[in-house]
Specification:
single chain; 541 residues; mainly beta; Jelly Rolls; Elongation Factor Tu (Ef-tu), domain 3; 47 strands
């Protein structure tokens, strides 16, 4: 027969933890998961560790944006700067950037900067006057009829170039000459187009005549909200329409000649405005709140816009898309999504029921950084694509992220440009921030038992940098103040510490660690003893 087993132990249980899995802001957070945190990182996963100190590279007085293309570029007040030097004038305010070849473009100013020549100017050009002569001219060194515009004393090369599509307005004698043809050649004060493109006087329509009044010839670009570069074209969108520039030409958005190099525009026809665009997996991808559109094809003749009704980018989060670990991440109205070209998948479950908005994203290549708002305020959070864990850094409000020379730069709303994460060969003028304050709060701990239990002691194995501090805190049954756990933690060494505390029964409890400066937690051991079923009744200690 079997005899009952008599326990000879003192009833003390040990719960050993040496894997810390990042954020889980849900009530069901398990062992090793943190319900809340501040300034932690996954760099030393599975250890729990504080993030590296950021480096402040520069402070702008009136920040308008940050970009990188063969060097860092930014807008400060009414100036555009490249590699620290002012290159041109812009209007103050937030900017959207893209680049093609040697050109950086700046919207909504529709300005450009050539990083090779140093030229700064406008993508648009406009001439206005009171007299234009429509006449016969030349084309490819041969005489041509009804294809020229002449304005005495005007050097058209100061305004336009061959290949530009220009809009002619103000013609009243022959209103049919108000059109948008493409310039074929420029000869001093004459613009040459294709033959018979204009209506002239005379029975055969080839007798020169002069238009008078308020006349304009201009090259225009659309009012884009979002833009990107893809396959040697600039792509962008306003609220309803997708646009592409002429192949390899940032200046022309209205060239429609039936050629593979033409510009392109299409209206998707679906409800709601566009909220973002990005180049991903070789395609320009455009987002609405509840749609994703991908443009297939290699030329306007075979461009095809394919849309899918799925979770797109949330309004106000047009700068949240960023590629990390070959996956595109962005904020939707349902939370952070991971998009690999098919159906986007949610990856923001760690945030629990909190809803996010107004996100700005960036990437260091493998981690997705996002500055967003939720019901608790502004947060900068990091998703590690290799380890599938989230960490919260701090309350910084970043407006732009860019990657340059192996480092991730972030511009915040105070105008500070920071290097985030582990810096690689940072600029000499970059200064480290002060030691950061950090916090790690574990979820409810019940030790796998429905009964009340008593916590006897905590043992920590950790390492503090020189000058760093750390403290332990506990809270019982989600009530009352946090109680500091006694014990001295020594800086500059890696060792285990015994933190004694007054035993107290509780249904559940939480542990919080706080400190300032660098810290790595290798292991956490809890010693506890389990109570009886009767002692789990309300009000019983």
């Amino acid at each position: 027969m079997k005899l009952p087993r008599t326990p000879y132990s003192d009833g003390i249980g040990n719960a050993y933890q040496d894997r810390f899995n990042g954020l889980n802001h849900n009530l069901g957070a398990g062992d090793g998961e943190l319900f809340d945190m501040r300034n932690l990182t996954s760099d030393y996963f599975p250890l729990m560790a504080t993030r590296p100190r950021r480096l402040r590279y520069k402070t702008l007085e009136r920040p308008g944006g940050l970009f990188s293309w063969d060097g860092l570029a930014w807008v400060d007040g009414d100036g555009f700067y490249y590699k620290g030097e002012r290159k041109g004038d812009v209007t103050p305010g937030q900017k959207t950037f893209a680049a093609l070849g040697a050109y950086i473009v700046i919207w909504p100013d529709k300005a450009f900067f050539n990083v090779d020549s140093g030229e700064f100017g406008s993508l648009e050009a406009a001439w206005s006057g009171e007299s234009l002569t429509f006449t016969n001219g030349k084309l490819f060194e041969e005489d041509a009829e009804a294809n020229a515009i002449q304005a005495s004393g005007v050097n058209w090369a100061d305004w336009f170039k061959a290949g530009d599509a220009v809009t002619i307005e103000g013609c009243t004698k022959h209103p049919e000459n108000n059109k948008a043809p493409v310039i074929r050649e420029i000869d001093g004060d004459k613009l040459y187009f294709y033959e018979y493109i204009f209506t002239l006087d005379g029975d055969e329509g080839t007798t020169p005549y002069t238009e008078t009044g308020a006349l304009t010839i201009k090259r225009t670009a659309p009012d884009l909200l979002y833009l990107c570069e893809n396959e040697n074209r600039l792509w962008g969108c306003d609220r309803t329409t997708i646009y592409s520039s002429k192949l390899g030409d940032i200046f022309n958005w209205n060239v429609y000649e039936g050629l593979d190099t033409d510009s392109y525009a299409v209206d998707t026809g679906s409800a709601g405005p566009f909220t973002a665009c990005v180049s991903f997996l070789g395609y320009p991808v455009f987002f609405k709140e509840d749609h994703i559109y991908k443009v297939y094809g290699s030329a306007p003749s075979n461009f095809e816009v394919m849309g899918s009704a799925t979770m797109g980018v949330a309004p106000g989060s047009g700068l949240s898309p960023a590629i990390a670990g070959e996956t595109l991440f962005y904020l939707s109205t349902a939370g952070i999504m991971a998009y690999s070209g098919g159906v986007p998948q949610p990856v923001g479950q760690a945030f629990g029921l909190t809803r996010q908005k107004n996100a700005v994203g960036g990437s260091d290549g493998l981690k997705y950084y996002v500055s967003l708002e939720d019901g608790e305020g502004r947060k900068t959070c990091v998703y590690d694509t290799q380890r599938d864990v989230w960490h919260i850094e701090d309350e910084s409000r970043f407006t732009h992220f860019v990657r340059w020379a192996g480092n991730l730069y972030g511009l915040n709303d105070r105008g500070e440009v920071w290097i985030l994460g582990g810096a690689v060969d940072p600029p000499e003028e970059a200064e480290p921030e002060a030691p950061v304050e950090w916090m790690a709060e574990f979820g409810d701990i019940v030790e796998g038992s429905p009964n009340k239990k008593g916590i006897a002691k905590i043992l920590l194995r950790l390492e503090l940098e020189d000058g760093a501090t750390a403290e332990g805190w506990m809270r019982f049954d989600s009530a009352g103040d946090w109680i500091r756990v006694n014990g001295t933690l020594q800086e500059g060494v890696k060792r285990s510490y015994y933190l004694p505390l007054v035993p107290r029964r509780a249904d559940h409890y939480r542990i919080r660690l706080t400190g300032t400066g660098g810290c790595k937690v290798y292991a956490l051991t809890r010693q506890y003893y389990d109570g009886s079923e009767l002692k789990s009744l309300p009000g019983r200690q």
